[in-house]
Amino acid sequence: ITVTAYTDDGNSTELSEQFQTASSYPGLVQNLNVVQDTVFAQTLNITFNCPKETMRNGRITRFVLR
Predict the structure, then answer these.
(1) Which superkingdom is the protein from (predicted)?
(2) What is the per-residue pLDDT across 1-51, written as a single tens digit (0 to 9) for each?
(3) Which residues pair with 49 in a beta bridge?
(4) What's this model's pTM, rounded to 2 decimal places?
(5) Which pLDDT score, from 0 to 100, does residue 21 have?
C-alpha cells in the first residue's frame, strides 16, 4: 500500500508499507481430468491446474488425492 497526502499547495512524499492478508481455504482446482491407462488398468493419469490465482487465498503447499 502506498499513501500520499494531497492539499491545494502540493503533496507529501509517498509512504509505502507491505503486508499479507491471512490465508483462507483455496478455491477449486481447474480442469480436473482422470483417464484410465489403456495398458495398465490399475493406473490412472490425473491432471489438473491450480485454482485461479485470485482464488488461491495464500501459498498452496500441497495437493492430496483421495
Answers:
(1) Eukaryota
(2) 899 999 999 999 999 998 777 889 999 999 999 999 999 889 999 999 999
(3) 30
(4) 0.60
(5) 76
Cell, residue 66? 483421495
Q: Burial level of 20, CB count in 10 A (0-12/13-18/19+)?
A: exposed
> 14, 4 in Cβ contact below 8 A?
yes
Number of structural domains found in the chain: 1
Lookup: cell for 45? 493419469
Q: Which domain holds residue 29?
A: 23-66
> Does residue 8 sit within a domain?
no
User: What per-residue confidence (pLDDT) applies to 23?
Assistant: 86
Residue corresponding to grid cell 499513501:
3
In a domain, 14, yes or no: no
Q: Going by C-beta distance under 8 Å and a sequence separation of 6 or more, which residues neighbour residue 6?
A: 12
User: What phi and psi values does residue 53 have, to the nearest 5 degrees?
Assistant: -55, -35
